[in-house]
Structures are given as structure tokens and as C-alpha cells.
């Protein structure tokens, strides 16, 4: 038997570990025990699943999304987008009303920053709502497929559930939303220990390289990057105040999305990204320049990175309305009416 002193020291260490563990992690783990995911997922009612009663860890997210695919094999297909530093898979989910694999799609991602749980849950809720619509044959607009990548920073998200709730960067300590190329030089680059460290070079991270290859090889008509928090619809550019050539169209797009999201009691501002703050190496700027397609960032509403699980459905509904409006608007945006969807040709979405 161990000495009493050793036992007391062990107990003290355990109590300290529990006390220092983020309260919302403990709250959501307790919530998950109370509300396990209903399986199999009910067709046509995926957005009503108890999954959305709590924030969920990465393995549960993956299991739920795989369950969606299993329940809707004619509508939803899982694709591999990238790998992470720790060799986890960054998964995407292609939603389509058509059997064709070469239709243009709208790309929606979240979770570049691990601590933004609300962005990730909102994206998954929007996906399930569109899936419910598609199951009823009413997904709008029908001109596009959707590709959702709900969790890019898989490694960092795991850290946010275990050791650092406010983890932002990937496992290599790089901000994935600063790791894309920019034609402008950052006059004050972040140090390695900073939260927005851009990495040693653009594309240095397997997550960003994988996304680059994925979007370059497929037909996308528009891009949405979901973050939290702040309640903003952000338009390009973020690395220069020089207006985008389609700035007027972007302003109208943002206004109409704002109005659509307001129908769910969502109050969002619209501004060009640089007006919030100047940032270099962002995903939004990369795809806007590389493909000349509508590219926006949505910062979900909230007062903090840590928010109650009771807000999940509300934020998800806001995002769903915004995405549907985005899809309607981009049909008449820029060159989309010419169906010139990629720089590399109309490759299959596989």
C-alpha cells in the first residue's frame, strides 16, 4: 500500500487537474452523457438530432457526419480533403441532388481556428439543414452542389478539448488562416509564439496544402470561411484597402446575406475585412484572387469563444439562411453566368 502522503499528493494532483480543466469542456461532456447522439440518423430530420444539444469532441463529430452519409447515400458523400500535422484526415462532405460529379459547388469550411467551437457547430447545423431540404427535394438553389469541410484544424481541436480550450493554431504552432500566400508583405510578421504566427512559408502546413490542392482540382463557384465570434460578414480584401474589382457587388451580396440572417434574429454587420483589421495570408484572399469567385468570411455572433450550448441551433439557423442567400446571389455575381468555374478546368468533384 502506498504511503498516506503519496496518496494525498496524488489526490491533490487529481483535484487540481479537475479544477483547472475548462468548465465548458466539463459542461459539454456532461451534456453529451445526458444527450447521446440518436443513431441511426433519421432521414429528413438530421437537424433535429440531439447532436446539437451540446458541443461535441472531434471523434463524435466524425461519427455523426459519417452517420449522415450512411443515412443519405444518394445525397451525401464523404471526401478526403487534406491531412494534418499528426496525420489525421480533414474530411469534406459533398451534398448534391444530382448523380453528376462535375457540377459546380459552393465550398464551405470552418475550424481553421480550433477554439471556435461555435463556427464548427454552426457549419454542421447548416449542412444538416440543407441535407433535410435535399431529402425533401427542396434544396435551393438547385444550380449548385455543396462541399462542407466542418473541421479543418483537427489536431488543434483535440487540444481545445484536452489541454488548452483557447487553442487557435495547428499542432505545429501555425495559424492556418495566415498560411496562404499574399501579394503583400506583412511589415510586422508575428513571432513563432504569437497566436497569429504565419509559419515559415506559405503552404508550409499539410492542412493548407491539402486545401489548396483540393480547391484547385475541383469546380467551385464560391467560397465561405466560417469563424467566430463577432457577428460580421467580411468581404475581401483583408490584406489591402485597395478595393476588389467587384466591390460594389460584394457590398450588395453582404447586405442581402445580412438581411436573410436577420430573419433568424441574427444581427450581423457587413464590412470589408481590412476595415476590421489588416491580416496577411488568409484563406479568403487566396481563393478570391486565385479563382476570381465570390469569397467571404462569416464571423458567427457571440460574445466570446466560449458560449453556451443553448446557442448552437440559433447560430446554425443564421448560417443556413446566410448560405442559402449566398448561393442565390452568386448566380449573378461576376463571371459565374459564364460557367467558367475553375482555373484548372471542370474536374470531377470526387
Topology:
Elements lengths: L3 H17 L2 H12 L23 H14 L4 E8 L5 E7 L9 E6 L6 H19 L9 E5 L4 H9 L43 H11 L3 E9 L3 E4 L11 H16 L6 E4 H4 L6 H9 L3 E6 L11 H19 L20
Parallel strand pairs: 3-4, 3-5, 5-8, 6-7
Antiparallel strand pairs: 1-2, 2-4, 6-8
Helix pairs in contact: 4-10, 7-10
Could you write a compact summary of the structure shown?
Pfam families: Peptidase_M14. The chain is of the alpha/beta class.
The CATH superfamily bears the name: Zn peptidases
Trace the largest sheet across and list its strands. Answer: 1-2-4-3-5-8-6-7
The biggest beta sheet is recorded as: 8 strands, mixed
Shape: globular
Following the backbone from N to C, one meets helices and strands in this order, namely HHHEEEHEHHEEHEHHEH
Text of the CATH class? Alpha Beta
Active site: 299 (proton donor/acceptor)
Signal peptide: 1-27
GO molecular function: metallocarboxypeptidase activity; zinc ion binding
Family: Belongs to the peptidase M14 family.
Amino acid at each position: 500500500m502506498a504511503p498516506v502522503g503519496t496518496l494525498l499528493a496524488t489526490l491533490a494532483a487529481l483535484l487540481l487537474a479537475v479544477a483547472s480543466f475548462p468548465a465548458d469542456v466539463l459542461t459539454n461532456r456532461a451534456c453529451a452523457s445526458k444527450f447521446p447522439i440518436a443513431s441511426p440518423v433519421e432521414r429528413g430530420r438530421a437537424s433535429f438530432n440531439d447532436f446539437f444539444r451540446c458541443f461535441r469532441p472531434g471523434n463524435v463529430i466524425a461519427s455523426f457526419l459519417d452517420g449522415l452519409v450512411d443515412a443519405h447515400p444518394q445525397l451525401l458523400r464523404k471526401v478526403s480533403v487534406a491531412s494534418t500535422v499528426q496525420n489525421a484526415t480533414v474530411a469534406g462532405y459533398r451534398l448534391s441532388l444530382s448523380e453528376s460529379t462535375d457540377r459546380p459547388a459552393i465550398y464551405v469550411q470552418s475550424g481553421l481556428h480550433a477554439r471556435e467551437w461555435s463556427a464548427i457547430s454552426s457549419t454542421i447545423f447548416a449542412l444538416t439543414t440543407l441535407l433535410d431540404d435535399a431529402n425533401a427535394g427542396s434544396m435551393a438553389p438547385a444550380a449548385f452542389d455543396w462541399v462542407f469541410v466542418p473541421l479543418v484544424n483537427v489536431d488543434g481541436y483535440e487540444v481545445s478539448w484536452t489541454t488548452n480550450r483557447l487553442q487557435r493554431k495547428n499542432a505545429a504552432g501555425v495559424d492556418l488562416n495566415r498560411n496562404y500566400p499574399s501579394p503583400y508583405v506583412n511589415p510586422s510578421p508575428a513571432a513563432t509564439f504569437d497566436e497569429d504566427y504565419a509559419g515559415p512559408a506559405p503552404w508550409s502546413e499539410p492542412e493548407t496544402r491539402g486545401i489548396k490542392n483540393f480547391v484547385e482540382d475541383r469546380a467551385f463557384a464560391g467560397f465561405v470561411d466560417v469563424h467566430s465570434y463577432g457577428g460580421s460578414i467580411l468581404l475581401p480584401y483583408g490584406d489591402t484597402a485597395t478595393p476588389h474589382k467587384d466591390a460594389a457587388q460584394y457590398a450588395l451580396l453582404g447586405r442581402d446575406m445580412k438581411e436573410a440572417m436577420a430573419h433568424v434574429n441574427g444581427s450581423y454587420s457587413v464590412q470589408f475585412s481590412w476595415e476590421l483589421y489588416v491580416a496577411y495570408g488568409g484563406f479568403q484572399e487566396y481563393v478570391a484572387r486565385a479563382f476570381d469567385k465570390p469569397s467571404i468570411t462569416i464571423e458567427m455572433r457571440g460574445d466570446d469563444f466560449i458560449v453556451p450550448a443553448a446557442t448552437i441551433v440559433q447560430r446554425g439557423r443564421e448560417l443556413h439562411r446566410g448560405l442559402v442567400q449566398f448561393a442565390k446571389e452568386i448566380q449573378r455575381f461576376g463571371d459565374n453566368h459564364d460557367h467558367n468555374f475553375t482555373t484548372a478546368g471542370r474536374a470531377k468533384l470526387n
